[in-house]
Amino acid sequence: MIKKCLFPAAGYGTRFLPATKAMPKEMLPVVNKPLIQYGVEEALDAGLTEISIVTGRGKRALEDHFDISYELENQIKGTDKEKYLVGIRKLLDECSFSYTRQTEMKGLGHAILTGRPLIGDEPFAVVLADDLCVNLDGDGVLTQMVKLYKQYRCSIIAIQEVDPMETNKYGVIAGDLIGDDLYRVRNMVEKPAPEDAPSNLAIIGRYILTPDIFDLIKQTEPGKGGEIQITDALMKQAQNGCVIAYKFKGKRFDCGGAEGYIEATNFCFENFYKTGKAY
Question: What span is annotated as the signal peptide, if there is one (predicted)?
Fold first, then answer.
């Protein structure tokens, strides 16, 4: 029912300078695998096989990563190093990849709109690769959300509780509880000051969106920071119909900054690399 997943990946990664001056932040390795590969694996586990990536200048490494490297594969053929390519080969075999460029950085809403030619008129998922999400006890976050979409057939956003003093880093929702960890959104604010935040339920980088979101983004004026915010378009959608916020099961690491990146690396080393599940 949902088969497409959009990865906005044109941003500058300024919170991780100077590492991201010449390397896409989505290619930062967590142990031995780049962030965006974790995201694509999560999408594939949820049954999303058509991967669309919005890139920008200096992001060619993303396209090269999801491609065959004949010289490298020939060099390690028949050696024990082949095991390191098992995961990426699975993605290349089971997923298709398409790309478009965002020529100006005008916010997440604009990045999603840039991906419209790749998505078409159908529901789709959005993954922000620098939010690394894992769930050791069951389904991945996107899988959980796809199951909810099959039930509710509307846009769904992933949320988590954050420190009330850090609401200025996130889009924040207020809503009415309609089920276990499910809220019908009635208000949504982009990066509010703690005293203005409607709650401490923050939106993280996992969405399922219905295709009418594209026209709503086109009608959205630039908001905070002069950017076209996806939260503003989603608020219009919530007023016209239904947007559900889901407090997901699992852990999320903010790998756009050094602290979250180090936490993610330590977690993945202990739970994936040392157990032989890292490839």
Answer: none
Determine, yes or no, domain membership for 184: yes
Q: Does the residue 115 lie in any domain?
A: yes
- The total domain count for the chain is 1
What is the Cα–Cα distance from 23 to 151, expressed in whole angstroms?
Answer: 40
- Structure-token match 């509880």, residue found: 177
| Domain annotation covers residue 279 | no
Q: Tell me the pTM.
A: 0.94
Q: Is the Cβ–Cβ distance between 128 and 154 less than 8 Å?
A: no
Report the DSSP pairing between strands 182-190 and 243-247: antiparallel
Q: How far apart are CA 64 and CA 24, in angstroms?
A: 12
Residue 256: CB atoms within 10 Å: 22
For each of the chain's 279 residues, which pLDDT tens digit applies? Answer: 899 999 999 988 888 889 898 899 999 999 999 999 999 999 999 999 999 999 998 899 999 999 998 899 889 988 988 888 889 999 999 999 999 999 888 889 999 999 999 999 999 999 999 999 999 989 999 999 999 999 999 999 999 999 999 999 899 999 999 988 999 999 998 889 999 899 999 999 999 999 999 999 999 988 767 889 899 999 999 998 889 999 999 999 999 989 999 999 999 999 888 676 666
Domain harbouring 146, CATH code: 3.90.550.10
Q: What are phi and psi of 207, to 5 degrees?
A: -140, 150
